[in-house]
Amino acid sequence: MTREDLEGYDAFVTSLPGTAIGVRTADCVPVLLYDPRQRVVAAVHAGWKGTVLHISRKTIQLMSQHFRCRPGDLRAVIGPGIGPDSFQVGEEVAEHFKRAGFPMERIWSFRGPGDGTPMSGGHHIDLFEANRFLLEDAGVPPAGIHVVGTDTYTDPAFFSARREGVRCGRNINAIRLV
What we know:
single chain, alpha+beta, CNF1/YfiH-like putative cysteine hydrolases, five-stranded mixed sheet, three-stranded antiparallel sheet, 7 helices, 25% strand, globular
């Protein structure tokens, strides 16, 4: 299997020891899942569109159906991605989240007209919290979810498509069973 064979997929799941799986991101949020009982791992690429489509929850459903994972056993890491202060969106994007059933009081804020500086004012979405909501709603215990919270837009140690343009490098987020 080549790298090109894997293009276009937003989630990978495996129970093969020694096999690393991962997702490349540059502002999108990586979600890494681990089931210590069934010994299964997953790597999820959760950009705003995938988050609206509940990619994290769907991955947990797949893990349950194909690997007998129980959501209550899962551990999750929500890795570095664009933070809520930097993820300014249009009203139409905020509406997508509302229509998809997200608790807007947890994930959305409107910050007024702005002061002319980048990312000030407007609608902002918290992708970290949106994915935490999906994980909790799927049955992952809150204590089993760790949010790294690093904002890739403001931290120059990470690639950011919004800061550098879409042709920038990518952050590699991987998980492996030993």
